[in-house]
Each structure stands twice: as structure tokens, then as C-alpha cells.
UniProtKB/TrEMBL annotation:
Lineage summary: Bacteria, Bacillati, Actinomycetota, Actinomycetes, Kitasatosporales
Matching CDD domains: YafJ
Top EC class for this record: hydrolase
Name of the protein in question: Gamma-glutamyl-hercynylcysteine sulfoxide hydrolase
Span of domain Glutamine amidotransferase type-2: 2-275
PANTHER family to which the protein is assigned, alphabetical: GAMMA-GLUTAMYL-HERCYNYLCYSTEINE SULFOXIDE HYDROLASE, GLUTAMINE AMIDOTRANSFERASE DUG3-RELATED
Reaction catalysed by this enzyme: gamma-L-glutamyl-hercynylcysteine S-oxide + H2O = S-(hercyn-2-yl)-L-cysteine S-oxide + L-glutamate
Tagged with keyword Hydrolase: yes
Source organism of this protein record: Streptomyces monticola
Name of the gene: egtC
Function: Catalyzes the hydrolysis of the gamma-glutamyl amide bond of hercynyl-gamma-L-glutamyl-L-cysteine sulfoxide to produce hercynylcysteine sulfoxide, a step in the biosynthesis pathway of ergothioneine.
Enzyme Commission identifier(s): 3.5.1.118
InterPro entries in UniProt: EgtC, EgtC-like, EgtC_Actinobacteria, Gamma-glu_amide_hydrolase, GATase_2_dom, Ntn_hydrolases_N
Amino acid sequence: MCRHIAFLGEPEALGELLLKPPHSLYVQSWAPRHQRHGTVNADGFGVGWYAEGDPLPARYRRPGPVWADLSFADLARVVRSSAVLAAVRDATLSGADGEAAAAPYAYGPWLFSHNGAVTGWPRSLSGLARSLPADELLALEARCDSALVWALVLHRLRSGDEAPGALADTVTEVAAAAPGSRLNLLLTDGETIAATAWGDTLWYRTDPLGGRTVVASEPYDDDPHWHEVPDRTLLAASRTDVLLTPLKEPEPHGATGPASTSQAAPGALSEDVKEPMA
């Protein structure tokens, strides 16, 4: 469910990244090649990008399919950025919240996307929802599973956690409360990318000499320099480096079991693996 992509590098037109490649995110909205769940991503789309000198990203989101937005091609042709996060959506619940539920979600310098679904939603995460401060729950942009997962990640970021750890601990916590969930998360602050592969596909390619890294649900072309990320893996990337860390399967504890949004889950991370660069 859903496809997403994040980019860091020299400024590039959104269209060169999202529309022009033969298997671009635009094409993936109706013809994904590696999507394991669902076939059409027509329940909304969004793109976030960073302008030079401004740490806060801009967003363009719509509730319908990207191919139905006649203005997006013009926007994508002229807007250039050195950091982008974009997504096309296949909703867990049909019609849930429209544009407000379309990624990327944003707070401060952060952009976030969730590719997947939480099993047993919403009951399965009721215990985790109660662990959040009331003001953070009331500030949810939408009532969908992705919005609550973002709230759990954001709570950790606000508490001072680094982005990779915030994603890893949130995935472990949600997977324990809702076994069988698909939790491919993608997060950027315009300088780094953090992502998880948990139940669906994730790929990356990087050009260290050119200072360019792309992380995506699936490759947008057939370049052999794409690398697939193993399932149950945390990815942390800059413009020149990609680090993969295996994630351990949590012990299920049920919807009302113990949960903490301020401490790392014991054993959430295993040994780091530095991937060879293309």
C-alpha cells in the first residue's frame, strides 16, 4: 500500500525525479512493479521539498490520484530542490480524511511518510495512543493509522531522539502491539534520510562522488546501481553514505500491553552493516 521516495543531492527539478523516469513515482501510482499489497495508489499524493535558505519544507498535497492533477506537471517542471520527499497513497480505509491523510506529514524541518498498514486499526494501537500527551493526540492531522504512527515518531523526535532511533523504536513498538503490520517509514530533515523496511519493499541508490542519494519503495528505472534493502532493516543515509542496521522482531504484547514512547525498545537494533557504495 502506497509508494514513496526521498532524495538528497544537487538541486533538481521535481519533474526530473518524480515524473520523467520510466518507472517514476507518477507511473507507480497506477503500475507499481514491486508493490506487495494493493495495485493502484489513487487515494491521494503529496510532495515536500526544501527551498534554499529555508529549513522548513513546503508541501503540495491532493486527495485524488496524481494523474488527475493537471497543474502538478507545471509545478514539478519549475520547482527545484536539493531535498525531496514524495508519496502516492493507497488508503488503509477508503476515503479516510482525504488530503489531510496524504503524505508527507510535516513538523518543523521534518517530512514523513508511511508505506504500509497497521493491523487491527484502530483498536490495536489504542494503548499506544493513550501513551501520548493529549495535546499531541488532538493535533493529529488525520484519523488514519499513518497519522498516529507519525505522532509516535514525532514524540520521540521532540524528546531528543535521533531520527534513525525514533523510527526503529516506533516500528518495534507498533509491531509488538499490532503483529503483522507493514511499517515502511520514511523521514527526512533535508540533510539526512532515515527509513525502515518492514513488510514491503525498499531500495536505494547513491552516488558518493556526486553527493546524491535516493531511497524509494522501488526503483524508478533499471539502473543496476539500485540496491534492495532487506526486510526488517533500518536505513540511515546522507548524501554520501548509507548505513543498514538489522531490526529484531519484537515480542507481541497486545494492544493494552506495556509501551513507552521515550525509551528504546530492548534489542530493537542489531549489528550495523555498512553497505558498499555504487
